[in-house]
Design a protein that fits this description.
By secondary structure, the protein is mainly beta. It contains 1 helix and 9 strands. It is globular.
């Protein structure tokens, strides 16, 4: 889960749940044309519901980086926005998880982050 209460509403009110599947590439070998996808959501702010298609998914040392685009969303303003997911992999957890949607940056913590990233790494 990621959030940023410093942003103006509605973004500052979002508690973003992230579920993702990605084929992680180590140190930039050629990869699949479509390495994965994700869903974004918030149980209270239903209009955040979005699908993300990843264009790249890499792991350099312990640095995870997933880049993609929101392909469809309940909020028309989010469709087409870029998405960047980054963090430091430590075992099965990710420290310093950040999700950037367009120009808005959200940071995460807690057990849900670990569960979401395990799904990415197993994917």
């Amino acid at each position: 889960m990621v959030w940023n209460t410093d942003l103006a509403p509605p973004e500052g009110d979002w508690l973003i749940r992230l579920d993702a599947k990605a084929d992680i590439l180590y140190d930039d070998p050629p990869g699949p044309a479509s390495p994965g996808f994700a869903t974004l959501g918030d149980d209270f702010h239903d209009t955040l519901g979005s699908h993300v298609q990843f264009e790249t998914a890499t792991l350099h040392g312990d640095k995870l980086k997933l880049q993609g685009t929101i392909t469809e969303s309940k909020n028309p303003d989010l469709a087409g926005q870029s998405v960047l997911i980054q963090g430091k992999v430590e075992g099965t957890a990710v420290q310093g998880l950040t999700v950037t949607i367009g120009g808005s940056v959200f940071s995460g913590a807690g057990l849900l982050v670990v569960i979401a990233i395990i799904a990415i790494l197993i994917g």
